[in-house]
């Protein structure tokens, strides 16, 4: 044995410690203590490998002067790091935290001695540091115990362990950790457990408990850093959107929040708010942009019907976050969902510019879809769809059926635009060809089947159209109201009015209240066709109550019904116009006039209202007033077919060398715009008969009979293609 050599001459002074082994050159006392600790841990680990748990604990306790629980914590950490989670649990099971909360409160309230501070004496060994170190060991043991249980699949038990620690900390420090403790290991461990707890509940499928746990973690005072907080917010938002649990609104308010602050009404709103905060943080930070936040937000706002808000988020993205073409395409999707088709189409035109992405299939198909159902843009849609088919590579060949579907609808829409008979027939053939090819590729796509049936119906191939309508209802399980309505109109075109009414009754029972508008309107039309005007009045009153109730309701369904430009929405002015026609049929002139006044108050410049007024005057025998009303209607809408037909009829009946050519002109314009209008064919036939053109008259009257036998109570043109739903 040799003594420790000191620089003061080599003698060992009084109270100097002797060591059996010389200290290595360049060593120090802290380093020696650390090495002794490491050696002891290795010895304990060796005994642990031999299965001597108690001997390993005793060795650690004697060497480190720590108690039994702290030794178990250290040994358990060794086993956890080795991946022996079962062995770690055996050690951690002997650790208890009873009395720790009281000890924490005591040490947090203890202050240094004022007398020692005045005399400048060195304080006693830092008992607070020792206590924090020991507490950290125990808390870490429970944390590793929870992680071990998680690895072994015992998620609920792991969550319980986290809950024990969090309850203990809440009991010890209701107002949060002391400021001097927040940079200690203890604070880091508690923070980890506050985050792990809701994650474990979510992994266990206990979403009803995980949601309040996430809220508590986000509002906790344990101080997670910014990155951890962002990750937690993202996890919580995903759980709210996809968890499938309708949790109650968040009741606690964040610290410092103002009274009356907005509280989300449901999970979707809460998830959207969290994602908006995350997106704002992403935009303002200089780190890597998290595109998944934008993806989840896009989904949530789209489902919630707030694509206009989503467009605003894309507009606020900093330059460089995404390419101009990508931004324009995403903005176009948003505005298209918001019903702003013109803005969306202008954005797509820029995106498809020669210097951007002129051959992008997705942009071409979206532009074609917007144009397809609009008469003034149908040919532009045909061009986009054809170009998309030309540019399709094998990677996007799955979109071929969609492109053919859009192309067929665009051809069909263009066929309804006034043109020559030969051009119309050619377009109709192209429409059927494209839709049949699309149906062959995707035979189970309900939208393709519906639009194929609608095209057959417009060409008066009713039996095939009925088969398509039935198939659509089977494939879609009757989920779309327009499918029931289409089937009903086909039955009325086959003069099966009783069956059509039964189908409507079944559809009304299956649909929600706010989807019943068009169904009720169609039922009233059927009742009029069956010569039951009093029943039709009752149905229209039901419809009027529904429309007026939607204006007073604050529910999301009612708002969505009012916002919807297709499908089930019925305007109040339409109800008053239809009621005026019913009362005119009943010869109740005063009631008809009242309905027309209400319609004119809602929409002063309406060709339909003026046309209904003309029919009222005509029924009353006031021919001149009727003619003036029809002229007003045509002045407002030069393409209004019914007004042209009625005006042509009155002029034909008046006769004379001046009136007859004008009548022929109005009737010809009406047939050019709507070749299936049976009343126009009838009046044109009578006009030819009066002129002595027997052959022409026979042809016209045959066409009138054909279209009368195959015309529904409501024109098929009132049903929009499924692309517009």
In summary, what is this structure?
It holds the Pfam family TPR_16. TPR repeats lie at residues 573-606, 607-640, 678-711. By secondary structure, the chain is mainly α.
Which key features would you list for this structure?
mainly alpha; Serine Threonine Protein Phosphatase 5, Tetratricopeptide repeat; 35 helices; disordered N terminus
Walk me through what this model shows.
With 725 residues, the protein is mainly alpha-helical. The protein has a domain at 639-725: Tetratricopeptide repeat domain (Serine Threonine Protein Phosphatase 5, Tetratricopeptide repeat), CATH 1.25.40. 69% of the residues lie in helices and 0% in strands. The chain is built from 35 helices and no strands. It has helices at 29-49, 53-64, 68-82, 85-92, 100-109, 114-119, 127-151, 155-172, 185-203, 207-219, 226-242, 267-284, 291-303, 307-315, 324-337, 341-351, 361-372, 378-391, 400-415, 421-441, 446-458, 462-476, 481-493, 497-510, 517-529, 533-552, 556-563, 572-585, 589-602, 607-619, 623-636, 641-654, 659-673, 678-691, 694-710. The protein is elongated. The chain starts with 28 loop residues before the first helix and ends in a 15-residue tail after the last helix.
């Amino acid at each position: 044995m040799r003594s420790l050599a000191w620089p003061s001459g080599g003698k060992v002074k009084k109270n100097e410690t002797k060591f059996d082994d010389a200290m290595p050159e360049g060593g120090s006392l802290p380093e020696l203590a650390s090495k002794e600790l490491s050696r002891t841990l290795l010895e304990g680990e060796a005994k642990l490998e031999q299965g001597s748990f108690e001997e390993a604990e005793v060795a650690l306790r004697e060497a480190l002067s720590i108690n039994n629980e702290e030794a178990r914590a250290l040994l358990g950490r060794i086993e956890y790091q080795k991946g022996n989670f079962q062995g770690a649990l055996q050690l951690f099971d002997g650790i208890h935290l009873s009395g720790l909360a009281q000890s924490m409160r005591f040490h947090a309230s203890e202050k240094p001695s004022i007398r020692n501070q005045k005399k400048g004496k060195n304080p006693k060994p830092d008992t607070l540091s020792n206590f924090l170190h020991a507490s950290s060991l125990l808390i870490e043991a429970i944390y590793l115990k929870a992680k071990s249980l998680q690895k072994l699949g015992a998620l609920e038990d792991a969550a319980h362990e986290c809950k024990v620690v969090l309850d203990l900390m809440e009991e010890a420090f209701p107002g949060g950790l002391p400021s001097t403790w927040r940079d200690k290991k203890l604070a880091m461990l508690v923070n980890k457990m506050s985050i792990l707890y809701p994650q474990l509940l979510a992994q266990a499928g206990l979403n009803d408990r995980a949601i309040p746990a996430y809220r508590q973690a986000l509002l906790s005072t344990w101080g997670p850093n910014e990155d951890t907080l962002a990750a937690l917010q993202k996890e919580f938002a995903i759980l709210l959107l996809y968890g499938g649990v309708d949790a109650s609104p968040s009741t606690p308010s964040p610290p410092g929040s103002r009274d009356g602050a907005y509280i989300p009404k449901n999970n979707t709103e809460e998830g959207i708010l969290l994602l908006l905060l995350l997106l704002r943080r992403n935009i303002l930070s200089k780190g890597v942009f998290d595109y998944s936040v934008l993806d989840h937000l896009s989904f949530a706002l789209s489902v919630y019907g707030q694509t206009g808000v989503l467009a605003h988020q894309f507009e606020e993205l900093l330059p460089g976050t995404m390419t101009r073409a990508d931004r324009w395409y995403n903005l176009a999707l948003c505005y298209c969902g918001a019903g702003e088709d013109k803005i969306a189409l202008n954005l797509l035109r820029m995106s498809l510019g020669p210097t951007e992405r002129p051959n992008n299939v997705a942009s071409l198909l979206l532009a074609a879809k917007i144009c397809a159902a609009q008469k003034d843009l149908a040919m532009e849609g045909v061009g986009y769809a054809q170009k998309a088919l030309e540019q399709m590579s094998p990677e996007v060949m799955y979109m071929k059926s969609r492109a053919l579907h859009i192309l067929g609808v665009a051809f069909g829409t263009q066929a309804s635009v006034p043109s020559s008979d030969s051009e119309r027939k050619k377009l109709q053939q192209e429409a059927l060809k494209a839709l049949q090819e699309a149906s062959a590729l995707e035979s189970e796509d309900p939208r393709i089947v519906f639009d194929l049936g609608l095209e057959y119906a417009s060409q008066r191939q009713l039996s095939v159209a009925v088969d398509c309508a039935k198939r659509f209802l089977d494939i879609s399980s009757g989920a779309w109201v327009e499918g029931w309505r289409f089937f009903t109109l086909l039955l009325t075109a086959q003069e099966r009015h009783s069956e059509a009414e039964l189908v409507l009754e079944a559809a009304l029972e299956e649909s929600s209240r706010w989807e019943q508008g068009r169904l009720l309107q169609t039922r009233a039309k059927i009742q009029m066709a069956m010569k039951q005007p009093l029943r039709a009045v009752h149905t229209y009153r039901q419809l009027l109550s529904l429309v007026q109730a939607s204006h007073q309701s604050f529910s999301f369904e009612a708002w969505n019904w009012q916002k919807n430009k297709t499908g089930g929405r019925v305007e109040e002015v339409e109800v008053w116009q239809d009621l005026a026609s019913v009362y005119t049929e009943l010869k109740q002139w005063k009631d008809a006039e009242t309905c027309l006044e209400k319609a004119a108050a809602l929409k002063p410049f309406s060709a339909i209202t003026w046309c209904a007024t003309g029919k009222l005057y005509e029924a009353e025998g006031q021919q001149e007033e009727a003619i003036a009303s029809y002229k007003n209607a045509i002045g407002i809408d030069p393409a209004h077919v019914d007004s042209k037909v009625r005006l042509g009829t009155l002029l034909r009946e008046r006769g004379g060398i001046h009136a007859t050519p004008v009548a022929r002109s109005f009737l010809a314009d009406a047939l050019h715009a709507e070749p299936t209008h049976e009343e126009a064919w009838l009046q044109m036939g009578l006009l030819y008969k009066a002129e002595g053109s027997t052959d022409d008259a026979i042809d016209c009257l045959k066409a009138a009979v054909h279209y009368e036998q195959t015309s529904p109570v409501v024109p098929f043109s009132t049903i929009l293609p499924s692309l517009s739903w």
